[in-house]
Structure formats: C-alpha cells, structure tokens
C-alpha cells in the first residue's frame, strides 16, 4: 500500500500526500498483516535508486511531490514515472516494409553460430535515422531468413512472435550490423518487451553478440 483516498468514510484526497501517507502508516497499516505491505519512501539519491532498480530487475521509479493532492484522472506533473530499461547489443537480421524506408527492425542474438530471433522494434527512430539506416541496408539483402527459430507457431501474449503469415512483410539482411537496443524485460517466450533502438555499434562483431 502506498496511498489512501478514503479513511473511515472520510474523503482525504484533498489532503497533501505527506498527510495521506501519515494516515496510512498510523491508522491503517498497524491493523494489517501479510500479504499487505507498505511501499515506503526511498531515501537515497537518484543514481543509487536507478542502480538498485536495475540490479533487482524492477520496471522503474515513481516520484511524487509531498504536497501534491490526489487528482483522479489528471496528469499535473506532480507525479513522475521513470522507466528504467535494460539494454544490450543485438544483431539486425531484417526489417519489415515501410512506406519510404522500413517500418520495424528485426533483430536477435547468436547461440554458437545460430542466429536466434528476439524481437522487432519501431521505436527510437527519427526520419533522419531511418533514412541513414536504410542506406546501410543496401547491398546486405538476402533471400533466406537468417534466424533459425523462425517462423514461430504463434504471435504470443505480447505479439512479438513472427509467424509465417507475418514474415511475408519481412525483408532479410546479412546479419552483420549490430545495434544497441533498450528493453523492459525478456518474456517467457524468449522475446523482448518495450524495445527501443538506441544506435548502431561498430565496436563488436556480430558473431560475438550473445544474450545477456
């Protein structure tokens, strides 16, 4: 528990967060036990908190002004959410067709000498970056899919799977380009969620890219 809006029939949403949390800690939490737990404030600097979030594999942080009121349905800026993504390098093995350049990058990693599909992403591109990347694809086009684990039987819960039907919109590339990708997590289907392209990397050969 991290907030209270109504206490014993009394609306406390107009009270500042600092007061609401005091009511929560003194009036409510002493009466409760497992599995209810208190989501206490984190007394540390932002760099330390970010490192802790990464170390524990959590999604991110939420910061709230202590004097903020509860504003249902509004985004006033008094509360801020920071997603802390993971990231690593991946090998670009193809793309999906777009109107002028490409729609999404298709990428993966090596297990031995086998290229494994991980995900595709549409995020992180400006029009200029899309044009620059598309130019780098010239001369790398190949006919056969380079990923050994495609096609997949189904799209999966988050839609990251590449089925045979979806692959009709794919164009394949010789797997030599390496990209830095940010993501939220690996799914149980060995795909990535909430992916974002950061940049190309020229400091690591594609065959050395492994899942971390």
Plain-language structure description:
With 212 residues, the chain is of the alpha+beta class. The chain is 16% helix and 31% strand. The chain contains 3 helices and 13 strands, in the order E-E-H-H-E-E-E-E-E-H-E-E-E-E-E-E. It has helices at 17-28, 46-56, 127-137; strands at 6-7, 10-11, 60-64, 79-83, 86-97, 102-111, 114-121, 141-142, 170-173, 178-183, 185-186, 192-193, 196-201. The strands form 4 sheets. Strands 5, 6, 7, 8, 9, 10 and 13 form a 7-stranded antiparallel sheet that branches. Strands 1-2 form a two-stranded antiparallel ribbon. The protein has a two-stranded antiparallel ribbon with strand order 3-4. The longest helix has 12 residues, at 17-28. The chain is elongated. The protein starts with 5 loop residues before the first strand and ends in an 11-residue tail after the last strand. The mean pLDDT is 92.
